[in-house]
């Protein structure tokens, strides 16, 4: 076994061995290390080092000190060995030249460990670390090379003891342990803010002073996210990477030899929390640690600040984000914070569930003391989140609740407005922005079930984007802000594209969203949810292009995207989310091809093939996806059936087109039967009916076509009058009026048809003057009506 492979295997075995009871570890190792005595010896060495509480610098890999350290380094005289590690040794030293003396610690890097390239990087990072000024990070004063060419750094000598010794000697209380943990998180946050990853966040690299102040030491060869790949000509040697890696605290991606990122530090911080708080742990702290140490990076906290915020919520008896969401949990926390107000809490809970009629901000104003007022502010903050997420989702799953959902959305908005007008920390600003994003999706976000209130959706989305853009400018390094902004931009693109017919904005927002996701993937490719979100944003951008008279660009992007997602999904046959993206891409490709190519062009049939593929994929998805996701997938299948009916209509295969539309109508009817107030399902059924008019004409049923067109026009015209500034509603009404004229003409009622054509043409010209149409839209509507009137 090669040295690099043995080192990797040893670290993997050691990581797993830590989960085995101490008495069974030797036997377990014998069973799993095979016949390789060197491998068993290396794992044993790692285990012995782990059990040793001596000061470590550079990880838990204990090695011999540098054989013959120099007596002096510059102005410093070495006075004794403090400790040794994989990267080198640390010596106590004293400055005894010049006009002052002081004690320091000097770290000598082992000879031959760093290549010339890594030595240069070490120098750059030494300069960066020297600029750090944080009370919980040991200062770095100087650095360079000895006469023998050994790299060294001169750093603050911390008069403290390792974290484990501090726990054993002082027996701190749980609040004291968590207070120290929060200070460590603050130090890590400071480093991350300067694009530095610690890489070895372990108890041995935290010293605690007599004042109970922690000092974070030994950043090792930390570097800004992503530079390892750029600097190291194929990557730093695996053994070197592992020298700054402590098994038991190293994230899974690091054990695989991948680049350390801020998410790796978050994993180590979760392990550190487990070290500080022994079992049996409070359920909330266990949930926090579990989230921080999740195997998948997407499942962890996305910033060290978010991890620290959850610990603070635990200390303040506020709901912890890592806990499973439930109304019972949130209100239990509220009552625990306010035992005297428990009866008020129960009344409030009942009011929320029964209709939210009794909620009020007045109970905050009734508090005279500032601290009590702040407590009530936090309660309202929790209630707003509870309404928008927990309660809304719970009621949404149950048919017949649309009216109540409207009231919840309105009540939650009043809370968001009041929260937004108060003093806000960055975390609260982010939370409120996410709340407005959620409120926009609830009101009218077309990518999910919504209340059909497009204007309210736009207002909430604009507030969300305003706040998220400001946060992104102020905190350009916060990953959670970037993810929130990218997600909101995607929702904005869908709202603009479907709800408002604003294709320019849809394209711009989706491209901004995709660019943010792509940048995040450059730092770490192993982020499945981020990758899928990137695909969706690219898909939305491609969808908008044909509507901007750029179908060729749209087809090219869709083809590239289809190839990318197919390659991603191939080894993930049960990943329903990836398959759902593929199904949607197939549907969009079908739409784009028939838009761009004439019916007699062979490429037109490629569009039909993709439409067939999309429907078969949705049918399969509805079988394998989680039950809670199936209603949305059925809606997407409805859309795919509708699109295929358009292609079949162009090919004059009217019986097949009508069959697709009938199937789509049944899906919509099932949703409406479950909830008559489901405006999204109502809108989709109307869209199906608008095409069904032509399918009925195609099979010769003109009477049914005229009746359907009249009833549909009445509904859409009334809706457009109620929202005169909505381009989408105006276009929908004009579209069905034109269809009614076509049906009347087909039935031989020329005079009636000509009158309706004139009114339809006037409608479309008005729309074109207010919201300019693209070339295809003008041909389909204005030119169509003008040509029909030539026969009148």
Q: What can you tell me about this protein's structure?
A:
The chain has 792 residues and is of the alpha+beta class. Among the domains are: 3-51; 72-156, Phosphorylase Kinase, domain 1 (2-Layer Sandwich); 164-313, Orthogonal Bundle (Transferase(Phosphotransferase), domain 1); 325-423, no CATH class; 701-792, no CATH class. 64% of the residues lie in helices and 6% in strands. It has 32 helices and 9 strands. A 6-stranded antiparallel beta sheet has the order 1-2-3-4-6-5, covered by helices on one side. Strands 7-8-9 form a 3-stranded antiparallel beta sheet. A hairpin with a 4-residue loop joins strand 8 (206-209) and strand 9. Helix 19 runs antiparallel to helix 20. It is elongated. Mean pLDDT is 79; it is low at 52-65, 221-244, 340-377, 379-392 and 394-401.
């Amino acid at each position: 076994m090669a040295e690099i492979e043995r080192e990797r295997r040893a670290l993997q075995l050691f990581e797993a061995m830590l989960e085995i009871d101490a008495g069974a570890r030797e036997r377990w190792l014998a069973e799993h290390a095979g016949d390789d005595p060197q491998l068993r010896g290396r794992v044993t060495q790692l285990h012995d080092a782990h059990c040793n509480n001596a000061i470590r610098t550079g990880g838990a890999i204990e090695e011999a000190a540098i054989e013959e350290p120099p007596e002096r380094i510059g102005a410093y005289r070495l006075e004794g060995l403090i400790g040794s590690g994989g990267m080198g040794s640390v010596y106590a030293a004293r400055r005894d030249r010049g006009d002052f003396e002081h004690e320091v610690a000097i770290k000598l890097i082992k000879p031959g460990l760093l290549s010339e390239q890594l030595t240069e990087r070490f120098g750059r990072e030494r300069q960066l670390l020297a600029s750090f000024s944080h009370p919980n990070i040991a200062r770095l004063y100087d650095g360079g090379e000895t006469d023998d060419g050994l790299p060294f750094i001169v750093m603050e000598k911390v008069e403290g003891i390792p974290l484990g010794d501090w726990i054993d000697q002082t027996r701190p209380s749980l609040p004291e342990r968590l207070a120290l943990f929060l200070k460590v998180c603050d130090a890590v946050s400071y480093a991350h803010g300067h694009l530095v990853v610690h890489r070895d966040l372990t108890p041995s690299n935290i010293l605690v002073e007599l004042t109970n102040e922690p000092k974070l030491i030994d950043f090792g060869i930390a570097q800004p996210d992503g530079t390892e790949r750029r600097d190291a000509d194929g990557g730093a040697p695996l053994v070197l990477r592992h020298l700054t890696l402590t098994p038991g605290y190293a994230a899974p991606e690091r054990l695989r030899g991948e680049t350390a990122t801020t998410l790796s530090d978050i994993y180590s911080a979760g392990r550190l929390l487990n070290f500080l708080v022994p079992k049996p742990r409070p359920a909330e702290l266990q949930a926090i640690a579990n989230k921080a140490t999740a195997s998948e990076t997407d499942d962890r906290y996305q910033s060290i600040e978010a991890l620290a915020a959850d610990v603070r919520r635990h200390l303040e008896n506020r709901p912890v984000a890592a806990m499973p969401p439930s109304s019972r949990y949130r209100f239990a926390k509220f009552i625990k914070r306010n035992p005297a107000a428990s009866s008020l809490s129960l009344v409030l809970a009942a009011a929320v569930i029964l209709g939210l009629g009794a909620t009020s901000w007045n109970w905050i104003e009734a508090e005279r003391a500032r601290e009590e007022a702040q407590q009530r502010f936090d309660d309202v903050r929790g209630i707003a989140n509870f309404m928008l997420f927990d309660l809304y989702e719970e009621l949404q799953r149950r048919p017949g609740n649309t009216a109540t959902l409207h009231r919840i959305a309105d009540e939650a908005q009043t809370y968001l407005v009041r929260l937004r007008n108060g003093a806000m920390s960055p975390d609260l600003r982010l939370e409120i922005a996410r709340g407005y994003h959620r409120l926009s999706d609830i009101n009218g976000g077309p990518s999910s079930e919504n209340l059909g209130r497009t204007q309210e959706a736009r207002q909430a989305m604009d507030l969300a984007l305003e706040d998220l853009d400001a946060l992104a400018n102020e905190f350009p390094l916060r990953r959670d802000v970037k993810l929130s902004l990218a997600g909101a931009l995607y929702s904005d693109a869908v709202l603009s594209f479907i709800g408002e017919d604003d294709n320019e904005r849809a394209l711009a927002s989706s491209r901004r969203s995709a660019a943010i996701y792509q940048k995040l993937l450059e730092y770490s490719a192993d982020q499945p949810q981020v990758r899928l979100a990137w695909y969706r944003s690219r898909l939305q951008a491609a969808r908008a292009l044909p509507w901007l008279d750029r179908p060729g660009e749209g087809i090219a992007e869709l083809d590239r995207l289809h190839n990318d997602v197919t390659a991603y999904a191939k080894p993930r046959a049960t990943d329903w989310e990836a398959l759902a993206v593929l199904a949607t891409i197939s549907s969009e490709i079908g739409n784009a091809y028939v838009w761009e190519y004439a019916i007699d062009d062979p490429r037109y049939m490629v569009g039909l093939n993709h439409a067939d593929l999309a429907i078969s994929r949705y049918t399969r998805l509805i079988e394998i996806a989680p039950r809670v996701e199936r209603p949305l997938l059925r809606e997407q299948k409805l859309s795919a059936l509708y699109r295929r009916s358009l292609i079949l209509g162009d090919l004059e295969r009217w019986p097949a087109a009508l069959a697709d539309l009938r199937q789509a109508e049944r899906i919509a009817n099932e949703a409406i039967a479950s909830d008559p107030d489901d405006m999204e399902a109502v809108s989709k059924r109307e869209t199906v009916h608008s095409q069904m008019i032509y399918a009925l004409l195609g099979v010769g049923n003109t009477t049914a076509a005229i009746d359907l067109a009249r009833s549909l026009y009445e509904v859409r015209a009334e809706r457009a009058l109620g929202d005169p500034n909505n381009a989408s509603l105006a276009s929908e009404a004009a579209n069905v009026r034109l269809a009614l004229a076509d049906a009347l003409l087909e039935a031989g009622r020329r005079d009636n048809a000509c009158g309706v054509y004139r009114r339809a043409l006037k409608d479309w010209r008005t729309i074109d003057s207010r919201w300019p149409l693209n070339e295809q839209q003008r041909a389909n509507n204005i030119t169509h009506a003008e040509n029909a009137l030539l026969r009148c």
